[in-house]
Amino acid sequence: MRGVHGRAGCGHREGARARADELLVLVADGDQRAFEELYALVSGPVYGLVRRVVRDPAQSEEVAQEVLLETWRSAARYDPGRGSALSWILTLAHRRAVDRVRSARAAGEREQREALRAGEPAFDQVAEEVEAGMEREWVRRCLRRLTDLQRQSVTLAYYDGYTYREVAERLSLPLGTVKTRMRDGLTRLRQCLGGAA
């Protein structure tokens, strides 16, 4: 669990929120570098929110990626007059996470009804567990390819929802070093996970 942060933490969060606002406007104009920075800035909070709703780690990662892709595609629809970029992105994340839960529930109920009619199991539990295990193993394998510092930084930010500054404090490193390692780590992780597709 994270400790309570003082005013400096609040000020940093406000700075990150304002930076996200600027970046999303640039992303709406097709600025890919701005999207990379925005991705690094919001991926942790997006995953954290989705994980609380969806619960399953593999599905949460998938939904978080869908949300970030949707952010890239629909950034032009963001209206700064109606709230912060982070709030807009987290609203997309919450909506998509809830949709995923409803969809999974509906599919499960449908399979159960069909299985009752056919008199057979609703789904192959073993195959589903094996597939989920393979996905988790692939992510672990990709994380192992990162340097220790990249892996620690990405894990703290992406999976635990820490900001750059909080990661720097936890690792006792300069903020610039953490940002560089995080960017390099995310790039390598995306390339590795892309090879899994």
UniProtKB/TrEMBL annotation:
Instruction: Name the Gene3D superfamilies for this protein.
Output: 1.10.1740.10, Winged helix-like DNA-binding domain superfamily/Winged helix DNA-binding domain (1.10.10.10)
| The organism's place on the tree of life at top rank | Bacteria
Q: Does the keyword NADP apply?
A: no
Q: Which residues form the RNA polymerase sigma factor 70 region 4 type domain?
A: 136-189
Identify the residues that the record assigns to the RNA polymerase sigma-70 region domain, covering every copy: 39-105
Checking InterPro entries in the record gives: RNA_pol_sigma-70-like (IPR039425), RNA_pol_sigma-70_dom (IPR014284), RNA_pol_sigma70_r2 (IPR007627), RNA_pol_sigma70_r4_t2 (IPR013249), RNA_pol_sigma_r2 (IPR013325), RNA_pol_sigma_r3/r4-like (IPR013324), WH-like_DNA-bd_sf (IPR036388)
Listed A to Z, the keywords are: Sigma factor, Transcription, Transcription regulation
Q: Which family does it belong to?
A: Belongs to the sigma-70 factor family. ECF subfamily.
Q: What is this protein called?
A: RNA polymerase sigma factor SigK
For this protein's source organism, the top of the classification is:
Bacteria, Bacillati, Actinomycetota, Actinomycetes, Kitasatosporales
